[in-house]
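Issue: ligand-bound run for heme C - logging full I/O for the record.

Environment: standard queue, default settings, no custom constraints.

Inputs:
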Amino acid sequence: MRLRRVLAVVALVLLPFVLAAAAILGVLFARQGGFEPYRVPHGAGRTVPSDAATLARGEYLARLGNCTACHTVRGGAPLAGGRAFATGIGTIYSTNLTPDPQHGIGDWSAEEFAHVMRHGVSRRGVLYPVFPYAHFANVADQDLDALYAWLRAQPASDFVPPPNRMEPPADSRLALIGWRMLYFRPDEAAAKPDDRGRYLVDGLGHCAMCHSTRGERGSLPPEGYMAGGSIPGIGWYAPPLDSVQLQRYSDEQLADYLRNGSSEHGSAYGPMAEVVYSSLRWLTPDDALAMARHLKRSAPRLARAEVPVAQAAAEGKGADVYARACADCHGKNGEGEPGAYPALRDAVAVTAPDPINAVRMVLYGGMPVTTAGNPQPHSMPPFVQQLDSGEIAAVVNHIRRSWGGRDSRLTAEDVDAMHGIVID
Ligand code: HEC
Ligand code: HEC
Ligand code: HEC
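Outputs:
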């Protein structure tokens, strides 16, 4: 009797907490989209046009979305998946998008495809956000149909990508519902196709995926939008695309940079070179200009710490290494050689908050992408064998202090550590 009464009292006391917890979970669940994302449509669907014009549009859109680059392993069948993405908590492999009915998306309807692109949930369950569905959610129906038609017209492959290797609890697709509740907010105000620049930048172009500062557990909070970010797993830094960074470019110069991978302010390298090569070089001049205008118009105004340029940088070991190994190409005062070697004065790697790109360039050198607008790029040799880690730290400190406004204090150990995390 007494026990029952005690239990009743305990239950009464706990009830408000249980209700409050349920209410919070309910709100979080509603904010990630409610039940809708989990109702994946199956079975036969409507017929989608697949005439030559639709296929050509689908191919163009697939290039903008960079589907093939992410869904193809080096040397493997195009779109058959298997490319590995290293994250802090394991490795995810892209899937087979070819029309193979068993291993690809051969038996998907247009509705199912559109659902997966919009909501990031497929018949396999909730997808990892390495697949940029948060960005693809704004893609218009007509464009999704064209993408679908184009994918269905590609050669089928029965390749089976390796299974993901994630650490618990992230290895469970159910746990991803929890992640979505905490971090994923479908963007209701997503760009409409008539705002072409924004539609491409925030949509298929998924620029913010690399250029934003990530929050906890790989999330992309709104305040980090285009604020610059370290790219998980591969040791590169994507600079902020804010008003300070982009003011160096006119609209036309920025459009040219996107299509050609080069400009008088430097060329695209690392992951950005890949984006130019497999995606942006296919942009029509109109689309490139629309994207450039949008990027400049909406560039966030981020507070930047002003670091006084160190006068002392002109002397010392870093300056000696620079004069010996770098000045021939980049000029005595970092002015570069127009059309051949980039100026270091306003170069991304020199001004970026994170020194990793500069260290990487010196270690491994670089070769800009060959594009129609930059048919014979000049390259930078690797210095990994020529300079020791102390010399590399000194020369990177020198260029960043002299011309980047960065109080750079790298040591030989820092350079060794960066050497260690770099993955091709
Ligand atoms: C940044 C790399 C990246 C890009 C770009 C990308 N994908 Fe993916 N995609 C992935 C990864 C990784 C997965 C697997 C996610 C998982 O297993 O949870 C995936 C999964 C998918 C799926 C789910 C497949 C299934 O069987 O569940 C579809 C559909 C898809 N992508 C289509 C596309 C299309 C279409 C494009 C281009 C418009 C595209 N992806 C661009 C990386 C990418
Ligand atoms: C896979 C990651 C990744 C994606 C996706 C990506 N970028 Fe980049 N981007 C980088 C990295 C890394 C750099 C720094 C290296 C360099 O300057 O080439 C960079 C550099 C740039 C620069 C040079 C900035 C400057 O100050 O000169 C611009 C402009 C740029 N990206 C625009 C874009 C746009 C627009 C998109 C979307 C269409 C995009 N990026 C998508 C990784 C990425
Ligand atoms: C033979 C000519 C040459 C020499 C020598 C050379 N570079 Fe470069 N450097 C280049 C070229 C070309 C690029 C553009 C490479 C690319 O985009 O892939 C470049 C790019 C860079 C960048 C990236 C610029 C950006 O846009 O962010 C940095 C930093 C850099 N070099 C520093 C150095 C330093 C430090 C040295 C000396 C240790 C050096 N370079 C020696 C030709 C050279």
